[in-house]
Structure formats: structure tokens, C-alpha cells
Amino acid sequence: MSTTTETSTPVEPPRQPGQDRAPMARPSLGRLWDTWGVTAILLILLALTPLFAPDFMELENLQSVLRESAYLGIVAAGMTFAIASGAFDLSVGGQLALVSVVTLMAYSAGGTAAAIGAAVATGLACGLVNAGLITRLRVPPFVATLGTLFVFRGVAYILTQDGPKTLPYDQIDSPFVKIGGLNVAGLPLPFVIMLAVYGAAWIILRRTATGRRILSYGSSPAAARFCGISENRIRVIVFALVGVSVGIAALTYITRVWTADGSAQDGFELKVIAAVVLGGTSLKGGKGTLIGTFSAVLLVSVLNDVLVSQGVPSAYQRIVLGCVLIVALTIDGLRTRFAVPGSFRRAVAGLAARPSASGGA
């Protein structure tokens, strides 16, 4: 994987063991999991779900699952860039609440076009605020985004202190509401938007110099800086992408729920991070897989639908989400450990040799 410096001089950036381009390299356990692991689990879950939720496979329910997965999936696409660069954004839940409130205010003032513009602009502004704190004030991403999580939610609460912002019922046939309710060739429009976002994100990450620089910086910040890759530019790009993704996601979210205030989607950031890490993007940076993120988003959405349909209380749903996050972090650690081809085989051989060694002693 090659990249370029700011002066367009070809440079070969450092690669992680799991990212080597050698065509004849033997696939490792980590690579196999990154490519097929979450997708395989999703297929198994889809096959087993009808056994205890017979209504799951009905067309209307499947459309509902895809529609509900859109806003989570769109933000997860943006978060993939951030985590692949070696950072993450804890403020996306607050961003979603604030953007949703501003979007409804803009719709009341200027209609559909104003709402769409306000959503994207507000999301971008939130991302640039985070980027400014990190690049100008040198606040670590974890601290900066944890702080702005509360700031963004606080602003949303202030804007809705007289009551939540809502869409009037007489707007049910408006073009704005159809963003969340329309179907295109049997697929919900929010899901179609999600597919378009993932297509654009894949092109940026895999087919542009910007994407290669993001992965190179996440793999080794020191080496990337030595090659001329600007740390500040990478931070601005990834957090701006996260903000824009939240803006787009808010359009699919608010046109489905019709109301917004500061408490909207509490804990949303944990769902996003869990989906991205479970999908195969390493928390250490340098590796991102949008296909894995996409599959993980559907996995989380299907699991959530099953829990709701079975009447599982919200408290237990949070427990399940916490377990999913723990599993995702555990898998990330194992994936890193067994990233080098043959490492799993050597580890098994080492475990098998221990009893014989102790017996011989």
C-alpha cells in the first residue's frame, strides 16, 4: 500500500503485519475473521432467528430492521475512519441529538431544503469543533469528544427547554418525511442512503490518497509524520467525516421518530463503536474494514429487533449491548495477537508442548 507526501513524492508507508500486500501470503486467522467472521455470524443469526421469532422474516419487519439500521450504519461508516486513524469520537450521541433538534427547527423555518442543509452543516460544524480542540488546543481525542458529548447534548436541551421539537402530523406527506418512510424497489430509502454512504466511504478509504494516508497514520503516526503526512490534516478530515455522517444519519433518524430533544439516543456512541470494532476495525488504528462494519451494523440491528420483539426489558437490552461491546474488544485483542500468518498454529503448538514439558520435568 503506497501513499504520497504533501509534495507528491511517492513514499511506501509502514504496514502492519495483517496488511502486507504479498500476493502469496498464507491467510491468517485474523484476516479470515476480518473478511468473513461477522458476516458468518450474521448469517447464522438470520437462520436461527425465525425459530424463536416466527414473524421476523416477514417483508414488513425486514424493511423495518433495515430502516432502523440506517442511522447507526451511516455514523458507523464515519466512525470507521476515525478508529482506523487511531482515534474515536465519543460525542456522536450528543451530535445526533443536537443535529436532530436543529434540523426540525430548520424545517419549521424553511422546509425540506433548509432541513437537509442544516443537518449536514450542523454535523460538519460539530466535527470541526472536535477537530479544533484536538489540533489547536492539543486535547486528546478521548477527552475532547467526551467533553463535547455533554456540550452538544446540553445545547440540545437548551434549544428544547420549552419542549421537544416535533414534526406536525399534517406533514406526513411532505418530501422531508418521505426520507424516512419511502421505499425504493422494496428497500427503505434510509437503507438506500446508507448503501450510498458506504459506497462513497469505500472509495475514499481504498481508492484515494486521503484514505491511504489515514490508514498509514493509524498504523504508525511517527513514521507517517516522517513521510510528510500532516497529523492535523488527518484529524480534521476524519472528524469532519464523522460529523457529516451524523448529519446525514440525523435525516434518516428524525424523519422516522418525528421528535427530538437532548435525550435522543442516549448511549448511541457505544453502539457505534461496538459495531465498528466488532466489524474488524482495530482500536490501535491502521486497519479499517467497511464491509465488516456494514455486517456488524446489521448484526446489532437484528439482535436489537429480536430483543424488542420478544419483550425483553430495556435494562436487559443494555446488558446485551454491553456484552456485545466486551466481545468486540476481546475479538479485537485476539485479532491483533493472531494477525501474523501462522501465529495461531504456533500458539496451539505451544499449548500442546506445555503438558509434555511439565511431565518431563
Automatic annotation (TrEMBL):
Residues 1-10 have a biased composition (Low complexity). The lineage of its organism: Bacteria, Bacillati, Actinomycetota, Actinomycetes, Micromonosporales. It is found in: Cell membrane. This is Ribose transport system permease protein. Pfam families: BPD_transp_2. The chain crosses the membrane at residues 36-57, 69-88, 108-129, 141-159, 179-205, 234-255, 290-309, 315-334. GO terms for molecular function: transmembrane transporter activity. It is a multi-pass membrane protein. It comes from the Bacteria. GO terms for cellular component: plasma membrane. InterPro entries: ABC_transp_permease. It comes from Allocatelliglobosispora scoriae.
